[in-house]
Specification:
247 residues, 49% helix
């Protein structure tokens, strides 16, 4: 097979053209990818100032996040302890996850925390909360939504962790309800958490896949929101590009 000189001379031009098209496609893909990422909501939002105020203020309350929840819950547990440290965790939300109905529960829980902060630490649980609007992945790890209360008996790492839960009435819950739960040492109003999403004893946690599974579940809940926006954006851009040659 004979190759002409003109063909050889044209090869660099073909290569340059192919390279330019590749770079153009790569830039376009990156633009679409950046737009896609921009539509995804923040899955680990926390206000450091609010967290510090809650921790050191009159409530003495911890704000749980995807980054700190295990460290926070284990923090008061002494190595080798056989008596558990009790934690209360309120799972709450705002307009997105609780439809604006958790304000009353939040207020009652905050009043309870202030009351407990005046008592000896040995007599009351440690207090914390997680907001599912700010921490959707953590709420998926827990597999629980607003408005719920968890009572957790924390032991050193490697021990089984018992959790009891209760759904809270968003219209009638008061501080007295929390005080009654605390006074009930049999926890008759609470139910044990035993599902596979249990953040310590569950199958997903024991096999180290709680976080990936939580992200997958969250991803499918947000697809309807950002995918429509993305399609509209792409369609609008294409329509504008088609109109430009005739202008």
């Amino acid at each position: 097979m004979r190759v002409s000189a003109s063909t050889l001379l044209a090869l660099p031009l073909f290569a340059a053209s192919a390279h330019a098209q590749f770079e153009q496609s790569q830039d376009q893909f990156q633009t679409y990818l950046d737009k896609l990422v921009s539509y995804l909501p923040n899955t680990n939002r926390v206000d450091a100032a609010d967290a510090a105020e809650a921790k050191t203020g009159e409530k003495k309350m911890s704000i749980l996040t995807l980054d700190n929840w295990q460290q926070t819950l284990y923090e008061p547990v002494a190595p080798g302890a056989t008596q558990p440290e009790e934690w209360w965790v309120l799972i709450t939300g705002r307009n997105k996850t609780c439809f604006g109905r958790c304000d009353g529960v939040d207020a009652a829980y905050n009043k309870t925390a202030i009351e407990f902060a005046t008592l000896p630490e040995s007599e009351v649980p440690h207090m914390a909360y997680v907001n599912c609007d700010d921490q959707p992945i953590l709420c998926n790890i827990f597999s629980v939504g607003p408005a719920s209360l968890w009572a957790i008996d924390m032991l050193p790492p490697g021990n089984e962790i018992n959790i009891w839960g209760k759904r809270l009435n968003t219209t009638t819950t008061t501080m007295q309800d929390f005080l009654d739960i605390h006074a009930d040492k049999e926890r008759s109003e609470l139910r044990p958490v035993t599902h596979i999403f249990h953040p310590f004893n569950g199958w997903f946690a024991e096999n180290g896949v709680s976080v990936p599974v939580a992200y997958i579940l969250w991803f499918f809940t947000v697809i309807p929101n950002w995918s429509v926006m993305l399609l509209v954006s792409f369609a609008s851009r294409r329509m504008m590009n088609r109109r430009m040659p005739g202008q």
